[in-house]
Design goal:
Blueprint lengths: L3 E6 L8 E8 L14 E2 L6 E6 L18 E6 L9 E10 L4 E10 L12 E8 L5 E9 L13 E4 L17 E6 L6 E9 L6 E13 L4 E6 L3 E4 L6 E6 L5 E5 L5 E6 L4 E5 L6 E7 L2 E7 L2
Antiparallel strand pairs: 1-14, 2-13, 3-4, 4-5, 5-13, 6-12, 7-11, 7-13, 8-9, 8-12, 9-10, 15-16, 16-19, 17-18, 17-20, 20-21
């Protein structure tokens, strides 16, 4: 008797999966996140770190923030004048990522112009942790050396995205208007933690962030399909490069599809067993679609 198996039909439409935003945090309430190093306003109302809005916020020295989502956001200036550390942190714990792939982090950041960001001290960083693993920094802002107005430090520059991890901002500069930045989150699991840190050690150094979003490939419209295991067999899987496709139908088209739903390769099956060479692609998870059946393929060279 033939064995029947069920697989999830992963929202495929012409071979594409659905990338959706499944988590958001805009700090419109006081729950769902924490300040492990504390928050508050110091003896000078220009020393602060915490949740604020555009009306009752401590006075920003040289500009007013704009473009934030809703009413509230997280902002800081001269943080060690308000809490015991110069590093203000926001934690978001236990985001459910079970069944999600191709994770991405997006948030809006701001710092304005004329903000005296120092090269060795000030920074904004985003780190993530999956299933109690290690913290991994996925995005960071540091001082852009091309904007320094004082060479003795170097001092008094602008925040910009540090795209190569060398400790200096070399990408898009932050402005007073909140701007979205997106970074990939490598890996998958059941639970995601986020840690956003701002290190602001003197007056005139200030920054803010808002509207955190996590997206991934999800299973919208999940249904079940049933297939006969004898109609298609893939081996070895995981594969180091060559995967064998065995099928009862020698007239099918085999299509290799990326996690993003992009068609990468296709071959016509003219025999009951053919080989597909994946060695040109990077390690990771792919989907192989043969006839009306889609199977997951793991490439590990």
């Amino acid at each position: 008797m033939k064995n029947l198996y069920t697989i999830l039909f992963l929202c495929f439409s012409l071979g594409a999966m659905c990338q959706t935003t499944f988590y958001t945090e805009s700090f419109e309430s006081t729950t769902g996140y924490s300040f492990p190093n504390g928050s508050g306003v110091g003896s000078s109302n220009q020393d602060f770190f915490g949740r604020t809005d555009s009306v009752s916020a401590p006075p920003q020295e040289t500009f007013t923030y704009s473009g934030f989502d809703g009413t509230f956001f997280i902002a800081g200036e001269d943080i060690n004048g308000a809490i015991t550390s110069s590093v203000g942190e926001v934690y978001i714990d236990n985001i459910d990522i079970s069944g999600k792939l191709n994770l991405q982090f997006t948030a809006a950041f701001a710092s304005g112009t004329g903000i005296d960001i120092d090269g060795v001290a000030d920074s904004i960083s985003v780190a993530v942790k999956i299933d109690n693993g290690a913290w991994i920094v996925i995005g960071r802002f540091r001082a852009d050396s091309s904007t320094f107005t004082s060479s003795s430090g170097p001092f008094n520059g602008q925040f910009a995205e540090d795209t190569n991890g060398d400790g200096y901002g070399d990408g898009v500069q932050l402005a007073g208007n909140f701007t979205d930045f997106t970074w990939p989150i490598i890996g998958s699991g059941d639970s995601l933690d986020i840690r956003i840190s701002m290190d602001l050690q003197s007056g005139d150094e200030e920054a803010a962030f808002d509207n955190i979003r996590i997206s991934g490939l999800t299973t919208l419209g999940v249904g079940e399909i049933v297939f006969d295991e004898n109609t298609i067999n893939l081996f070895p899987n995981p594969t180091t490069g060559i995967i064998n496709i065995a099928t009862l139908n020698n007239e099918d088209l085999a299509q290799l599809i990326s996690l993003e739903g992009k068609l990468l390769k296709e071959i016509q099956i003219n025999d009951n067993q053919v080989q597909l060479n994946l060695s040109e692609f990077a390690n990771g998870i792919y989907f192989l679609k043969v006839g009306g059946i889609t199977r997951k393929v793991i490439l590990s060279k």
